[in-house]
Amino acid sequence: MAVDKNKSLMKDWYDVKAPAVLNVRNIGKTFVTRPQGTKIISDGLKGCVFEEDEVALRKFKLITEDVQGKNCLISMAWISSVTKYAPWLKKWQTMIEAHVDVKTIDGYLHLLFCVGFTKKIHQSDLEVSYAQHQQ
Question: A GO CC term (predicted)?
Answer without folding.
Answer: ribosome
